[in-house]
């Protein structure tokens, strides 16, 4: 099951954990707008109806699988692309089937939160949220990807603060409390 923490600032080896302070799933969702579900990998077929309901509710009409491992074509180049901070104009949805990896996303204070995903973890990264991905030291992850309509996977590298998806993300997900200092992500 997922593990989550704030990252330290050392990125000499991006595939290392870089743990500063662990946090729980709810705190991560509140601070980023990321949504999380768990489908036990041994029962994925019996939980099929829950997954189907999620797909129907969110209008996911297309799915495929991605396998990230050293034998894939241009592995090192793809890792650099995945790990470059970016956003998308649509949600990014991943259900981990095998292996493990790290999705890093920015919280409302622009600090990195690392989400260590394992089989059964499904995460939805909101459109317009800065994030990146890297497999962990095992160098293997197989995941389902879900899309609304035909798949469009276009990374929009940072800075992209003027992109409509970024503006919408900030407008929809960040609520400033009237005490002036505290901001929290809304909407999970």
UniProtKB/TrEMBL annotation:
It is an enzyme of class 1 (oxidoreductase). One of its GO terms (cellular component) is cytoplasm. Belongs to the acireductone dioxygenase (ARD) family. Fe(2+) binds at residues 86, 88, 92, 131. PANTHER family: ACIREDUCTONE DIOXYGENASE. It catalyses: 1,2-dihydroxy-5-(methylsulfanyl)pent-1-en-3-one + O2 = 3-(methylsulfanyl)propanoate + CO + formate + 2 H(+); 1,2-dihydroxy-5-(methylsulfanyl)pent-1-en-3-one + O2 = 4-methylsulfanyl-2-oxobutanoate + formate + 2 H(+). Its main location: cytoplasm. Catalyzes 2 different reactions between oxygen and the acireductone 1,2-dihydroxy-3-keto-5-methylthiopentene (DHK-MTPene) depending upon the metal bound in the active site. Fe-containing acireductone dioxygenase (Fe-ARD) produces formate and 2-keto-4-methylthiobutyrate (KMTB), the alpha-ketoacid precursor of methionine in the methionine recycle pathway. Ni-containing acireductone dioxygenase (Ni-ARD) produces methylthiopropionate, carbon monoxide and formate, and does not lie on the methionine recycle pathway. This is Acireductone dioxygenase. It is found in: Cytoplasm; Nucleus. Its cofactor is Fe(2+); Ni(2+). Binds either 1 Fe or Ni cation per monomer. Iron-binding promotes an acireductone dioxygenase reaction producing 2-keto-4-methylthiobutyrate, while nickel-binding promotes an acireductone dioxygenase reaction producing 3-(methylsulfanyl)propanoate. Transmembrane segments: none annotated. The lineage of its organism: Eukaryota, Metazoa, Spiralia, Gnathifera, Rotifera. It comes from Didymodactylos carnosus. GO terms for biological process: L-methionine salvage from methylthioadenosine. Its EC number is 1.13.11.54, 1.13.11.53. Ni(2+) binds at residues 86, 88, 92, 131. Pathway: Amino-acid biosynthesis; L-methionine biosynthesis via salvage pathway; L-methionine from S-methyl-5-thio-alpha-D-ribose 1-phosphate: step 5/6. InterPro entries: ARD, ARD_euk, RmlC-like_jellyroll, RmlC_Cupin_sf.
